[in-house]
Amino acid sequence: MDTFGLKIIASDKVFYEGRCRNLIIPAPDGEVGLLPHHENMVIAIEVGIARMEVEAGEWNEIAVGTGFAEIVNNRVTLLVDTAERPEDIDVRRAQEQKERAEEQMRQKRSIQQYYHTQASLARAMNRLRLAQDKKWNL
Ligand code: ATP
Predict the structure, then answer these.
(1) Ligand 1 pocket, mutate which of 62, 123, 125, 130 (most atoms under 8 A from CB)
(2) In angstroms, what is the span from residue 120 Cα to ligand 1's centroid?
(3) Taking the mean position of all CA atoms in its chain, how far away is CA 9?
């Protein structure tokens, strides 16, 4: 089967660079699937779970933060603020992030702080969701 070049860049690291057969990303209107030779475009990415098929039938899940995907000439670049594999997720830290964000959401703060906290809460809940999925798959 055909593949495409994939590079996943998070703010602190190059998370993945290599070939990919199929990539599913969380976009504002729902999941978007990217196969080889997809038309060139830019797609926004929401906090959620991306799935990539590197070897046939082998899917890897990634907790991603917001960003965008750029598709140019059968090469896909994902630029996201955070990216974690299920096994890299520190569940206790995510639980603390969630509780901290929930507490901050209860306080009267600026609208800017509110959106910042809301984004942090979404990332924490997404990490917990992926870590939980992993637990159930064991
Ligand atoms: P907050 O969401 O409260 O601002 P933070 O600043 O620690 O917490 P992020 O800004 O979302 O978290 O991420 C910073 C870095 O830490 C990124 O590299 C992200 O992948 C990593 N990271 C954050 N939380 C976790 C976690 N629970 N488990 C593993 N890695 C994490």
Answers:
(1) 123
(2) 9
(3) 11
